[in-house]
Design brief:
The chain is mainly α and 69 residues long. The longest helix has 18 residues. The radius of gyration is 30 Å and the shape is flat.
Length: 69
């Protein structure tokens, strides 16, 4: 590996570590104290039902087959 490639790799790794290390604004820190989760309710409404997968429509009845089978 050439010296230029090694220098470039080291610079990229240093930039990656430097950018990913700082906390975002609003994150909980030990100085800020614990985050209040809000009121806890045990009687939460049930989750919304998940939609069923689309099923093919039943066949249309025809004059030859009035039941649509």
């Amino acid at each position: 590996m050439s010296a230029a490639k090694a220098t470039l790799l080291a610079a990229l790794l240093l930039a990656l570590v430097a950018c990913g290390g700082s906390p975002r604004r609003g994150d909980a820190t030990p100085e800020a104290g614990p985050v209040d989760p809000g009121p806890v309710t045990w009687d939460a409404p049930p989750p919304e039902p998940r939609p069923l997968p689309d099923e093919p429509a039943p066949p249309e009845p025809t004059p030859d087959d009035p039941d649509g089978d």
